[in-house]
Description:
By secondary structure, the protein is α/β, with parallel strands linked by helices. It is built from 11 helices and 23 strands. It has helices at 16-22, 37-50, 66-75, 84-91, 109-117, 128-137, 169-179, 199-217, 236-253, 267-270, 309-312; strands at residues 4-5, 14-15, 32-36, 54-59, 78-81, 100-102, 122-125, 142-146, 154-156, 183-188, 193-195, 224-226, 260-263, 274-287, 293-299, 320-321, 333-338, 347-354, 362-365, 386-390, 406-408, 411-413, 422-423. Strands 1, 3, 14, 15, 16, 17, 18, 19 and 20 form a 9-stranded mixed sheet that branches. An 8-stranded parallel sheet has the order 6-5-4-13-12-10-8-7. The chain has a two-stranded parallel ribbon with strand order 2-23.
Amino acid sequence: xxxxxxVEFYKNKxxxxxxxxxxKLHDTDExxxxxDLDDLRKKxxxxxxxxxxxxxxxxxxxxxxxxxxxxxxxxxxxFDCASMxxxxxxxxxxxxxxxxxxxxxxxxxxxLAYAKQNGVLTSTVDSEHEILKLHRYFPESNLVIRxxxxxxxxxxxxxxxxxxNAKTEAPALMxxxxxxxxxxxxxxxxxxxxxxxLPAYDRAITESKILFDFGTKLGFQMTLLDIGGGFPGSDHxxxxxxxxxxxxxxxxxxxxDNVNIIAEPGRYFVESAYTLICKIHSKRVAKSSxxxxxxxxxxxxxxxxxxxxxxxxxxxxxxxHLLDNDKTVPPTFNSILWGPTGDSLDKVGENLxxxxxxxxxxxIFPNMGAYSLPLSTRFNGFGSPxxxxxxxxxxxxxxxxxxxxxxxxxxxxxxxxxxxxxxx
Length: 424
């Protein structure tokens, strides 16, 4: 369960030291997430500035925190759902079904029935079997053909699992849909997460345009292009480059405004909104092969809880601490960070140059909002961290609201003032 907490008002800033004090983290062995809802709002504004033609459909799988869903829903974002459970969560925030795309190309029948019952009409497909399934169980669907267009340099590719060949399979699927009197409305793709071959976006958009023209010749009203997700959440320079490439490609291939361009950003919105505070509960010092010390620190969070991305994405953690001051910078040592479980795979980071910490010291991990909360397990009996939410929309004038418990879905979440920047 996601648990919400109050945090105090610090003149519009999150003071990590004061969060630790007020949340009484010295007296607990629980880690703590700090969620900056204003960061979500800023990201939404930046998206609209840099990609004004592309409507964001937030990928719920990335972080299904109900507070995040409510905040994005209130902003006007739409949603990419991959299951009945995710559709339920989004509908619970009073989101209309036409703001949801069921972007799972391989849908269980019970999930498809739930989408039909609740009027979620738009759905991706990438195989003959899925088209036949929709023809039998949900013929009213608006079909979006997902093509495969993998980037050559990418951290995580989806092409082996999802997406059909744009030149051979996609036209055949469109012909089958026409024969079955189904409604194809568009094309989708996903170049992959952590894409470093940025021209892949242009290549995929160009392939999509060819299929748009083919669909139009078949008599379909081709009205939707989905450019997928995988956009960086803490690398603004790369995101800006992607926006420039996408913008130029859309202008060249889809110059008219009669096509609804959407994307499925997940980590873009939430990665930088979450900061994780961990405490060192144990320590040992070993010797390396050259005789130098290696400091082993054991944290109250690990890869089975919030650091799953270390395993799934080979994520290199960024570590901040509270030992620096204006006068001295402490010496550093080769260090290893371990999670709290009994599994030797529970290694958060190694070969890290860190100061000499003691038990009870705190480590700060920024950019922890993507694929952390929903991938958390209860392995070895360790649960998910609490979450402290900061909301700038609640001003000093109505700070008394902090004494009022607000219900968000099934979670009791308490709000207070949001920071404009994090300070240690």
